[in-house]
Amino acid sequence: MYNANSMKAEEFIADEEITATLAYADANKGNLPLIDRIIAKAKLRKGLTHREASVLLACDNQEKIQELYALAEQIKQDYYGNRIVLFAPLYLSNYCVNGCVYCPYHAKNKHIARKKLTHEEIRAEVTALQDMGHKRLAIEAGEDPVNNPIEYILESIRTIYSIKHKNGAIRRVNVNIAATTVENYRKLKEAEIGTYILFQETYNKKSYEKLHPTGPKHDYAYHTEAMDRAMEGGIDDVGLGVLFGLEMYRYEFAGLLMHAEHLEAVHGVGPHTISVPRIRHADDIDPDAFDNGIDDDTFAKLCALIRIAVPYTGMIISTRESQKCREKVLPLGISQISGGSRTSVGGYVNPEPEEDSSAQFDVSDQRSLDEVINWLMKLGYIPSFCTACYREGRTGDRFMALCKNMQILNCCHPNALMTLKEYLEDYAGEDTKRLGLELIERELARIPKEKVRQIAAEHLADISSGKRDFRF
Length: 472
Fold this sequence. Notes:
With 472 residues, the chain is of the alpha/beta class. The chain has helices spanning 9-12, 15-28, 32-42, 50-58, 62-80, 119-132, 150-162, 182-190, 205-211, 220-224, 226-232, 249-267, 296-309, 323-329, 369-378, 388-391, 396-404, 409-426, 430-444, 450-464; strands at residues 83-93, 136-141, 164-165, 168-169, 172-176, 196-197, 238-241, 273-275, 314-317, 336-338, 382-384. Strands 1, 2, 5, 6, 7, 8, 9, 10 and 11 form a 9-stranded parallel sheet that branches. It has a two-stranded antiparallel sheet with strand order 3-4. It is globular.
């Protein structure tokens, strides 16, 4: 039986409820009075239930879809403004004991190059990332208790935080590793991680078990209940996501929103982020083998409706997606993107030949970080390297209280400008620096509070004279 307050995966993600939700959505996809009532509720900017949002996803009325896109754009502006936060993944190891059929790291893949970074190699990778201008990383590793134990992850985090190169520093490490124990989550919390990210891949239990035939990840309940253990272990911010293309997208959409509702109901804090990856080609993995893929228009609709249904969450899109696709969905709710990414182990220092690849998936957007930042500014966005909320204790319910009241912009807008100024001074190309300085001048004038605007202007001047790391 469906119960958002239950701690059992099959009750807070109940197949019967999702099936009933999809039937309800199909029955009402042309019910314009109901759709108008749901849209009116969405305009209050307090979110929607999984059933309400599923009706909108099923709706094929083009006029209503355009109304939804316009609403998603407005909600994104109200909560997050025109800022886009930049990050990069750092792959520590691709050793893995699981049998996931969609991932080239699966244990039966005998021809992929298996690698694990030493701490000296981590130093080299992080230095390369700092020289690009990155301040925020998401570390990735396969699940392997022998090669990638929690001690290795913790030591890697300590190494990353210790590296100060020129004006570079990684100020926040987010962690995307396999589901683990409450005790290990406590250790990650003590290591001062940012967000703990774990993709569900699919919320359909039967499909999940088929797609994960062997290894510890086969346990659907243990994996799905991981966020509850993470929060029990003291981690404030968790990030959800599914891999679109494994299962029917409408099923995944409903399950994703139910998971967000569960976290709100039990912990009072929903997901800090929601990621929207689509399956991509990788070593010995062909996305055409999965018949539930989604086109760009459907993908855009999903992004818009996640923003409308869960207005407070940060939304992440990676370099899995092309420049064209990212440009299409950025205004619909995306608040974080990766840039200059490598998905291979050691790929920042030593890019790999294709025949010896350790990459988890192909990167569609292969532009440099500077090219991405230049592009964002030309589109009217503020590229941000801000990590202030983590470092000022604005996490969990403290962050959500500010975000849900649409007050987080008071901190985030000036912080974005200051971190962008650091990038322009230390790393930007000539054209990017020119564009950035013009953008900062315009955006500084848009800060509504005079005192905040004055302090931000003083800090921006200090950055020009060589000082670093200011934050509200």
